[in-house]
Each structure stands twice: as C-alpha cells, then as structure tokens.
Model the fold of this input.
Amino acid sequence: MLKVSYTLRSKFFSSLVAYSVTLFLCSGGDLFATDKIELYLKWTHQFQFAGYYAALEKGYYKDVGLDVDIIESRKGVEGLHQQVTAEAGRYGVGTNEVLLQWHAGTPIVVIAVIFQHSPSVLYLRKISSTQSIHDIAGKKVMLSPRVYEILAYLKKEGIKSSDFIQLEHSFKFEELGNGKVDALDGYSTSQTYDLEKAKVPFLTFSPRMAGIDFYGDNLFTSQFELESNPERVKNFREASLRGWQYAMNHKEEIADLILSKYNGSLSKERLLYEAEQMVPLIQPILVEIGYMNPGRWKHIADIYSEFGMLPKNLDLDSFIYNPNPQPNYTIIIRSVAALCILVVLVWILLRQRWNRRYSENLEKEVAQRTDELREINQSLKTTLNDLTEAQGRLINSEKLATIGKLAAGMAHELNTPLGAIVSSNHSIATFLKADLRVMIESLSKFEENDFRLLEVLLKESLRDESHFIDGKQERALKKELASKFSDALKMNISGEHIALVIESGAYRLEEEKVRSILESKKSIELLQLAKFIANANRSCSIISVATEKATHVVKALKNYLVSDQDSKSGESQIDVVHEIENILYLYYYNIHNQVTISKNFTTSRKCLGNRDSLNQVWVNLINNSLHAMSNEGSIEIKVEDEADFIKVTFIDSGVGIPESIQPKIFDPFFTSKTDAAGLGLGLDICKKIILNLRGRIEFESKPGRTAFYVYLPAFSPSSEPSNH
Done:
C-alpha cells in the first residue's frame, strides 16, 4: 500500500514538473519578447550616424526591449519618408525636408534633432585671398537637389540663380580641383577632409554667415507609430540619444566599430576627422542632444515660405514631438467640481431626511438643523481651503511653465557671444603662435625711418578696432584706391599691397602718408605688421563685448528666477521700470523679429509690494498680448506718474476682446483661448495681486487696439509699514 502511494506521488510530481516546464517553454517567447524596429539612414554608413551604432552595440536598445536593424541608403532621402510611414515600427534619419513632406500630407512627426546646426556649406575654388561669395557670378556651380538653405543664403546675399551657371551635382569633389567646376555644395564634416587630402585650395561659405541657421540630421517616425506605440517611441528616442552621448565621448572606439562592422572602405583618419567636425554642430556640452526649439523650426518654415514652398505662419504643433507634455489639469478641476456637487446633493438628501424624521417636534428639528448647518458650514470652509490650496498649486504650475518658456531660448542667445569669443580666441592664438614670430623677424631688419612709418600706421590701425567692411564695400574701396594711386605700381587692384592697405586700416591715412609707406622698401612688412596687431586688438575688443553680452543674459535670467531676501520675507520697494526691462530682455529672443516693442518710461518712482507676484502680472499681460497678435505686431508699454499712483499701460495691436466677453475676462477659469492654451486663471490672478497692493486694473479694447491700465500706489516713507 505504501509502495503504491509512493509511486502515485512520484508520478504526480513528475507530471507537475513536466507541465511547468512546458508552460515555461511555451511562454518563453513572451518573457523575452522584443519589438522589431527598422531604422532607415539617409546615406551610407559613416560617423554621421555613430549614435545609433553605439546604442545598438552597447545594448541600449535591448535594455528597453527593442531589436533594431539599421539600414543604409544609396539614394539619399529619395523615398525615405514613404518607407518609414509604410509600416509601424519604422524610424528614419532625415533632413529639414521632413517639414515639406509633413505639410504635403505624409503622416510623420520629428522626435529629436541631432545636429543643432546644418553641415551644408558651399565650397569655392580659391584663386586669391580677396575672394568672396559674390565671385561665383558667371561661374559654374554644382548644387545637390533640395539644398534650400544654400539657395536661401545666395538669395540673401543678393545672388540670383541666373547670375551663375548651375550644374547637376556629380558628387565627384575632385572636379573642384581640376577646374571642371568653380563651386559646389557639400558637408563640412566629411567633404572638407576629402578636399584637404587632395590638396585642393578652397574657401568655405556657410549659410550661417548670413543668419540662415537650419537644423542638420533629425530623427523622425510615423504619426501612426506615435499614436499606437507612444511608450516605444519614447524608449527608442531615449536609447538613441543615450547612444549619441556615448559615441561623442568615445569617438575612437566607435570609429573602430564602424570600420569592423559597417563600412570598411573608409579610413579611420577620415572617420575621426568627421567626428571632430561634428562637435560644434551637435554642441553636446551647450545643448542637450535631441533638443528642438519650436522657434528654430518656425525660422526654417519661414525660409521655405519665401520660396513659396510653405504657407506663412504654419502651425507646427502636430509636427514636433513633445517628450515632456504639460500635465492636464482639466480632470482635477472637473473632479473638484463634481465633489462639490456631490456634497451639495448629499446635503439636500440629508436635509429632506431630517425634515421627515423631526417634523413632529419643531423645536428639536430647529436645533438639529442648526447643528447640521454648522457642520455643513465647516465642511464648506474645509472645501474652500482645499480649493484655495489647489488654486495656489495651479498658479505655481503656471509660473513654472512661464519660466520654462523664457529659459528655452537662452542657450541660443548665449551661442552668439560664445561663438564670437571662440573665434576671436583662435585669432589671438594664431597671432601668438605664427604672426608674432614674423613680426619679430621683420622688426629686427627695420631702419629708423621704417619704425617712424610703423608708428604712424599703428596709430591709425588701432584708432577704430570695431570698424568692419563687407565684401561689397571692400571691392568699391579697392577701385577707389587703385584710381587714386594709379601712378603707383604697387597699388595694382588685384595685388597684395592694396589688400594690405585695406586690412591694416592704412587707407584712412592722408594720401601723402600712404605714399610714404608704399615708397618704403619694407612696405609689405610694414603693412603686414599693422594688420597683425590690428587684428589682435580687434579680437580682444570682440571678446570684451561678447563677454559683456553673455553676462547681461545670465544676469537678466538670474534676476527673474531668484527672489531677493526682501521678496521672500514680504513687501519690498519695487523698481517697476527695471523689472519690466528685465522681463522684456528675457523675451527678446522669441519676439525681436516679429514684434515691435515701443517703450515710454517717464517715472523713476517705486511701489511697495512682492516683486515675484508683480512680475507675474507683467508676464501674464505680455503673454496675452503676444497671443492676441499671434506673435506678430506691436506692443507699446508706458510707465508714468498719475497723482499718487504709478500708471503702467500695455497696448497691443491684436484682434481685440469681443464685447460679449469683456465683463467676464477677470472671472476665474474663464478663457478665450482655444486648444487648452490657458487655464483662465491669468487675469484673475493679476487682479487679485494688484488689489492686494491697494491698486486697480482697467482695460479698453477694440479690434486692432487693446490697452490694460495698472495703477499702483507710489511708494513714500509714510506708506511703508512700521515693521518693515
């Protein structure tokens, strides 16, 4: 009997183990499941796509459950967008053409930008040191399809397509060296290496020199992929950006990886050169990799609209992916409202029940009702306190959102002075490493008369270090000097002397002094020394001005974000003009091209109050003006005295406030904005802040002109609290 029982138990456990193993094996596909992803590149394998190789090889994709296949292209971007949208799970590396494809109806969305600046440049075969972009007139120029930023650059320089001979791009860059073409476009990250390796003399012209700043490579996917798999899109983006961070910190390792697994036809030297050239374009230290500024995309759209390829004022919200969307407070507000209604309904039901129960005894009923009303009153007070706290949290959230918008463009405001500092520092380094040695050698051979002429020349060269002439002015000046000194052989219009006379600033000297310099046997050396010193002096001045501008930007942002000690402790004296100027400076990057700001500040008096709260009033009024004008128009701001008040006026040229809603604009949660653009708390908050300061706010509006008037009591020693 025991033996039979033992046998049965053994069979039972054996069957249980076998069944468990079978379940585990059958479910194994689910336990270790990964999503199949295809990433389509816009060109052949090279360091340009290093971040995706790093993410794949380092297991970043695998960590988030993605099995990624990276597919190179031999046709550029042709058909790329259609491939990505054909199926779910597909992503692409594209150019700024994704904007055109999106507007044409291709359901795509851009989820990250890798290159903050486009590497597209125009190469010009170098013939002399005085060449400029205008020298392509009448020359053969080879251009790739869809190089709109190059065409926009030429248009801004006043060069029409009929001014040069345009040829189809053969992508044979050696044709620049053998003279088959005079100019061609290419990528500064790779073609510069090829031209230098072939020892082709060339000049490089970037569209950024004319203020045309396109994005470079971007990462995009289909709208269907984003809607059906939002978490997968987020994971793929984060893993890719993590790979880019690794690749830019381990360039040599990734270069070896590309050679061994992706493209062995390239040299390691070329890959590392490309990697170093990508650093200033990606800017991994200054800007978070993958960051996109809607203002930059609008700038690109505006360039396309100038060519008639896109309409003006295009709404790009559905085109740009937001990895960190703002929280939706609608559910919270509705829940609070529903709770209040529920409380009222419960109270009504309880009241009816009490009426029925205590109808026989009026005295008891009155006493009981009084007690219940007291409880309900307390409950309503508690609810009111909860609502007040909720409103305070909403106000803080709105202020934080405003701060985020103001800070978004600061990196781009700092890029310009920082770039000027880097460029000027490079010029000074060149002066110290190379030019200084030439100067010492030349000075050792100078005679007394040469030193005298050099002193005269340096006084003029260093007199105005900020003076700058463009290419057009330089050509006109050469013609003028060649005509004035037509009897001097050294002043040939294409010669070295006339170029040095301009670069050293000698052309500003009296004619007699210029002739004395030209007659010297050391004329070339004199002019070169003056040029070297003038350039170094100009670079120092540029660094000084750029440092001052960068300091101004940082100081303005600090003043807005950091509350002073008085503001934290209560009321303080507020310089209204200074605070408004500070806020306008923070808005400068987003509005200076589309909005005209006129200021009329005629008072220096101060008011008493909380600086942070009052700044929130100015921010709300400016935001409302910009929204009413769709970020295009004019805003007039006045600060003036009116009796015992400081009167602050904001006037915008927007569409105006309809008469039907004017009585409601200060009501809480009332908004005229659509698409959840506002919570309807802005003007309600403004009014409460101003009333707390013993002031008032008024407005008048009609189409094309809306004016808000804020009256604040002017500070005087008698108005200051005794405990302040």
In short: The chain has 25 helices and 17 strands. Confidence is low (pLDDT under 50) at residues 1-9, 16-32. Residues 329-466+519-562 form one domain.
